[in-house]
Amino acid sequence: MTDHPLVLFMPSGRRGRFPVGTNVLEAARSLGVYVESVCGGRGICGRCQVEVQEGQFAKHGITSAKDHLSPFGPKEERYAALRDLKDGRRLSCSATIAGDLVIDVPQDVAVNAQVVRKESDGRVIARDPAVHMCYVEVEEPDMHKPLGDLDRLKAALSADWGYEALDVDFHLLPGLQKTLRAGEWKVTAAIHKDSEGERARLIALYPGLKNEAYGIACDIGSTTIAMHLSSLLSGRTLASAGTSNPQIRFGEDLMSRVSYVMMNPDGREAMTLAVREALNGLIDRVCAEGGISRADILDAVFVGNPIMHHLFLGIDPTELGGAPFALAVSGAVTLKASEIGLPLNAGSRVYVLPCIAGHVGADAAAATLTEGPHRQDEMMLLVDIGTNAEIVLGNAARTVAASSPTGPAFEGAEISSGQRAAPGAIERVRIDPATLEPRFRVIGIEPWSDEPGFAEAAAGVGITGICGSAIIEVVAELFLAGVLSEDGVIDGTLAARSPRILSNGRTFSYLLHEGAQRITVTQNDIRAIQLAKAALYAGVKLLMDKQGVDHVDRIGLAGAFGTFIDPKYAMVLGLIPDCDLDRVKAVGNAAGTGARMCLLNRGYRREIEDTVRRIEKIETALEPKFQDHFVAAMALPNKVDAFPHLAHVVTLPERRTSSDTGETGGRRRRRSRD
Amino acid sequence: MTDHPLVLFMPSGRRGRFPVGTNVLEAARSLGVYVESVCGGRGICGRCQVEVQEGQFAKHGITSAKDHLSPFGPKEERYAALRDLKDGRRLSCSATIAGDLVIDVPQDVAVNAQVVRKESDGRVIARDPAVHMCYVEVEEPDMHKPLGDLDRLKAALSADWGYEALDVDFHLLPGLQKTLRAGEWKVTAAIHKDSEGERARLIALYPGLKNEAYGIACDIGSTTIAMHLSSLLSGRTLASAGTSNPQIRFGEDLMSRVSYVMMNPDGREAMTLAVREALNGLIDRVCAEGGISRADILDAVFVGNPIMHHLFLGIDPTELGGAPFALAVSGAVTLKASEIGLPLNAGSRVYVLPCIAGHVGADAAAATLTEGPHRQDEMMLLVDIGTNAEIVLGNAARTVAASSPTGPAFEGAEISSGQRAAPGAIERVRIDPATLEPRFRVIGIEPWSDEPGFAEAAAGVGITGICGSAIIEVVAELFLAGVLSEDGVIDGTLAARSPRILSNGRTFSYLLHEGAQRITVTQNDIRAIQLAKAALYAGVKLLMDKQGVDHVDRIGLAGAFGTFIDPKYAMVLGLIPDCDLDRVKAVGNAAGTGARMCLLNRGYRREIEDTVRRIEKIETALEPKFQDHFVAAMALPNKVDAFPHLAHVVTLPERRTSSDTGETGGRRRRRSRD
Lengths: 674, 674
Fold this sequence. Notes:
six-stranded mixed β-sheet
């Protein structure tokens, strides 16, 4: 031990030497290690808990032991007596350094009995929220120094918390006197400071110690809206809720909603109102589930595609309906929740992530933030499939983005038996290459169609259509079974072998299920899927050209579609380029996670703003090669590209076009080489 | 002539050497000389006009000539052809330096046919408003660079005007697309930036060149509200209007309004609404008179005493009704006009000057700014008389302030025949010392009461009471005529000599007028005036003690009362300390002028904020000597102080108390020595 022991903070890994007797909280702050504290070191909020890791850390040259911290002090005794202080935990505002230490700053300090829900992803987000809770004791009024109540509050916030130039939300003024007196001159101030270059701002004030603050993160999808409620102090997610986007009644897909705005004078307003009402409903639900009130919510982060983004903010999206697809605003937007009719705390702020381009929105930006292609050396492809596919491809050196007009086929629109993912929809399909007989699975029914109990269950649920994931699978399985040629034509000659191949005059279709509803896959359905996947693939290919690569190292499939499709089938169809299938992952609601990251750590706001500025935007409509790529990509899996990784998992049919068999299907049926 | 001629800008006196060919606007800006420009040097707004002063300026070593500027350029030719460019005026964005120059930056550049009203004071206020108008040409949307409309606007504001980190009022977003397209990508942005330390903010946006912007300055008095409309670009006052404060229906004086709030649950709200409605009415009037729309008003400055200040802002003033007289806020307050229901431009800002203490408000701060005791070496006394007198005493070295509880006597309340200054009120009084006969003047009647035509006019108007100025005069005249003793007792023995002296049993009164209404001055009236003036004088004396002075160099009497009272009579009564009467001045609505200064030049906001922080506040209630001063000051003009300057204008009666004549008046009547 020296007079200046070495202290290492984990998980940040920051370290420094400090004189014996230095307060741990101060040591952490001097190194820029984020440790929460609401009470400013008075030992009453319990937010600044840390743990000592004991042992020899040879790599760091530290032998750390619990008694290298000062013994339990009176502040800790009092806190532990009043509240739950877990064994081994210390209050960093009380404990002082007595020797070398490895100190763990836990990311899950819960001081209240919070309802904590299982996270959709286990991601721990380092905290540094835009809103801080600061407890202060304010001088009482004094006739000799007639500073106003607010001015004395500001003086306390400057002295205890270092906020020297502090702006104040005007709405707080009328209630200020009461709050200060109700707290007997002890209050907790909520201070909003988003970036370093901006002045801190008092946005809420509570009497006494207010040891909690919450925020919401929300992804506004065209189809569904998902919201999470998180504690800004512990980082924990308390509640999540989702609902379908009520704008659907104005139009299923994005372009029909833009048309609605163009055709109806009050269309924009009606859709803005609809989405905000849905958000209000979700806020009610997460507040009820989390056991908090709306007034406890001090910050909110939103993402969405450009049209959702504009409608949410009350901006006319008409310009996004045609070239040059001009966004009203592409940069991040900050505002007060009250400015858009979201009744959270009166001082609550809203942060909306930047949009990348006219068809690549804040949702794609958020997904990029979550998956971080810009943070890694590997070349990563990130795809979010909707009516438009938003595509980001890049690594730390360079990131490019584009959108491709896939149309709504992947969502089941334009498909004869297509439907939304809901009970009764076929979601998985396998076809026996020998018999051409299918087996499938239906949402809401546990057994596969060839397993015991299926018929009984199906009688109850009903089999009503095919959802997006099954559309991909059935087309891929038809191709693997040799029913489809490379250019996607159903081989009519197979009708002789299987009653599943039905003739419709000049074309054929495949009978997937005969029941109350006959479910078939028509030649037109296959054409629709080919068009959609060719558009997606052409966009991806264009970005690969820009990056000068012929393969990608990782693929992330975002959104609901990405969650449910099997990467293998996506590759069989040629939706995505060749890649090690182990490295193709559904990344879930990456956009929602990105929103939550920005909620809990304002540093991520700057990261994504900088990243979006640096992303190169490719407008597919302006790229002559897009059309070539599109035509080539109509073939299954693709006319020009090789899929070496696919050979490890499936047996692709030999390359064979419909001309080999004649337009209505030939007689020969070849299997691929082994 | 050298390669780097010397250029002197007037009236600022700033000077520098510049290469031949330097643009005059750039030269001015590089020296920090404020020259307005909306179009950013495109020669279309005409705001940057300057004049060359010709001649030899030996003191500065400059020989200035008009041809030391470049000849009329194409921008000036075009501007002069389209608009009125006065002879000798040049556009500083076009003219370049060719030799030594003395350049005058006029403060009255009017480019539109403005209705210009005669200013109440001729004061020219150097301009540097918080809101700037910035014309820019924005890049059109481009699919290759999918920056949003707002982002391209920001880029233009950064490139042309240097606003790099620009915040944006959210309310502008929904209308942004239309404005940009309506202006064919040429727009004028209104940028608000109050202080250097704060980020600039886009608050309004207009299609094309918007070559005007307006602001209002307003003094909210307990009795009357006065508003001025000024051009932020030319500095000219276009319109002024005043109205009585409708809060009067809740209580005549300040304390009765505080009581109303304390007694009525909705009292605060009702009074806030009342004053804001009155302000809205005034806004309508100044807009109509100035020929502009409310949406053209982008900035507003308000002052008022602490209770008016609180009620205007929607803050409960109850705390101001009792010790420790705690202000909710003492510092300057900034907010959006929309936050307090003032429908100006949706982005319009409001600035409220700081209050000095619980009874010394933003009006006193504004008057201090106008009269500037803190800017001069002489010791200046500034007094604003209302229910409380707000008193500021100081010079550049030190300034102190206090309020004194004068009560409403000076306003005519508590006076038996007292009334507001309105037609029918006696406003001037003279009493003949020999005959004790009065002559007086009545508001609304031109002749004095002893002049031809008075009786006829009085029959029409009616004589109904005495207003504040006449109360001072009649008491002073009674004292000078020997009717009152030094301690303010009416000499009853004079009843024998004059029928004007009436007996009321133990006390006497003076009959000023016998008509439809009998107007008398009672012993109680005189006591009320004595109490009021003693309170005022004791406050002044206390501040003189603090400053360690026994006289003051200048006195400014602010407000309506200050405008109408005769300084001589104020000194005879001992309202104000001895001073050269030529240096006692009514300073009119100094508070309103201070508000206008802050509207037109944000530098004055910092000046008054700094000054208020440095002013030492004296709470009279806590000062033991206040009571002594008060008792001494009950005498006429004062028991302990000498008034040498008064001897030059009036003949004071010999010192004589009522004990010399007996409580009910003695027989002897002495005149002063000549």
